[in-house]
Amino acid sequence: MNDSVDKLVIFLAKRDGIDKLVKTFQYVSKLVHWHVEADHPDLAKRFKHWEVASGLSRKAFRTGRFLTGFNALRRAPGASPTLRFIAVLANAGEMVYFFFDHFLWLARIGTLDPSLARRMSFISAFGESFGYIFFMLTDFIMLKKELEEERRLAKSKEADQKEKALERIRKIRGDRIMRLMAVAANLADLIIGLADIEPNPFCNHAVTLGISGLVSAWAGWYRNWPS
């Protein structure tokens, strides 16, 4: 029990930890609003306020987040030229997303002209979706490489090499879970981004957005939870 509480404290001390918690509030409230809108309009209105407040607070909390893209590129000096090029594209898209998200937030709270909100939302969502495509591509490439390495290690014959191989295989399998969680989160966020770029009945449905938001939040929650 104490260990779980300690991990929760560590999780909520992270910016990403708070973001995933508030994102859960945002999309749970979206689903509840959709569910009770017809029969309980007053209750639906309260949950709509909670959804909007959660979304705006997340945008405020992400102030300056676009700078993390530079740090992500700096931390990967050993990557292959192909992966570095893909990382540049992925982080460039994410940086556009977070940068223009600032202006979207300011337009929605009335500090800037509210008519700018739609344009800022489009640019932000386009950068977000562009970045997520390349983040997923990176994860698929790494998953393929790690799967090939796991198969090679599984063929180790000598006892001393086999022990090291098994340790490496365990690490690869742990990394695989994290990469699959990242793919799930990025795919879910891509659907949310597409709803802003090209509104359509599927992506813009409250259930689609709600489930996508929760998949993204909970996959991120899993990845950020202290080990």
Task: Give a structural overview.
The structure is a single chain. This protein is an all-alpha fold and about 230 residues long. It has one domain. It is about 80% helix and about 0% strand. Helix 6 packs antiparallel against helix 7. The longest helix is centred in the last third of the chain and has 39 residues.
Counting helices, strands and paired strands, the structural category is mainly alpha
Shape descriptor: globular
Give the helices and strands as they follow along the chain: HHHHHHHH
Give the mean pLDDT.
92
Number of domains: 1
Q: How many individual helices?
A: 8
Low-confidence stretches: none
Main beta sheet strand tally, sense and closure:
none
SSE layout:
Blueprint: H1 2-13, H2 15-36, H3 41-61, H4 68-74, H5 81-108, H6 117-153, H7 159-197, H8 206-224
Top keywords for this entry?
mainly alpha, 0% strand, globular, PEX11, 227 residues, 8 helices
Summarize the structure.
The chain has helices at 2-13, 15-36, 41-61, 68-74, 81-108, 117-153, 159-197, 206-224. The chain is mostly helical and 227 residues long. It has one domain (2-224).
